[in-house]
Design goal:
Layout (H helix, E strand, L loop, with lengths): L3 E4 L24 H10 L3 E7 L10 H17 L6 E5 L21 H10 L7 E4 L2 H9 L3 E5 L4 H4 L8 E3 L2 H5 L4
Parallel strand pairs: 1-2, 1-4, 2-3, 4-5, 5-6
Bound molecules: zinc ion.
């Protein structure tokens, strides 16, 4: 079975901008391409798990999300880094049409992590969830993963809300250095 690091996107990989979907608004948090490269070199699978309720709310489309992820992949490629799997939840209970679901993939629920574990043969007990929000930490714990809160994004605000069983690190690069 494989070991994986599950990464939140907004506030963990890129600078938090509300309902980000435009390529030109995307900005890496410093050190992130290096962090992902270190995970790649260590043979740890990198799985991005991101809530994108902006789709359900009609702010942008799934195509916009996928286009942005292609852009991020291209930028990472310039640094010799890559994400193995991109997963996102487009749902929201008060969203529109077919996206208006109480799904099991929206964090803090662990559906995306569990789906990835089944599809890619990931050992969740030997894997890690890293994010800037308590919803990320709760999803990681519910899936049985080790959890690390980063102080980027909303992390500095959420730091006092996580239990002592969650590690806290300044940013993704310092978090990854705890693992490799
Ligand atoms: Zn969902």
């Amino acid at each position: 079975m494989k070991r994986a690091v599950f990464l939140d996107r907004d506030g963990t990989i890129n600078i938090e901008k509300e309902y980000l979907y435009r390529v030109q608004d995307f900005e890496f948090i410093p050190g992130v391409p290096e962090a992902i490269r270190l995970l790649n070199q260590a043979g740890i699978m990198v799985v991005v798990v991101t809530n994108q309720s902006g789709v359900a709310r009609g702010y942008y489309t799934e195509e916009d999300v996928e286009n942005l992820h292609r852009h991020i992949s291209g930028e990472l490629g310039h640094h010799g880094a890559h994400v193995d799997v991109w997963l996102y939840c487009p749902h929201h209970p008060s969203g529109r049409g077919s996206y208006a679901l109480p799904c099991n993939c929206r964090k803090p629920l662990p559906g995306m992590l569990q789906e990835a574990a089944v599809t890619y043969d990931i050992d969740l007990g030997n894997s890690v969830m890293i994010g800037d929000k308590t919803a990320d930490i709760e999803a990681g714990k519910a899936a049985g993963c080790r959890t690390i809160l980063v102080r980027t994004g909303y992390g500095a605000d959420d730091e006092h809300r996580v239990g002592s069983d969650t590690e806290v690190s300044d940013n993704l690069l310092t978090a990854v250095k705890l693992l490799v």
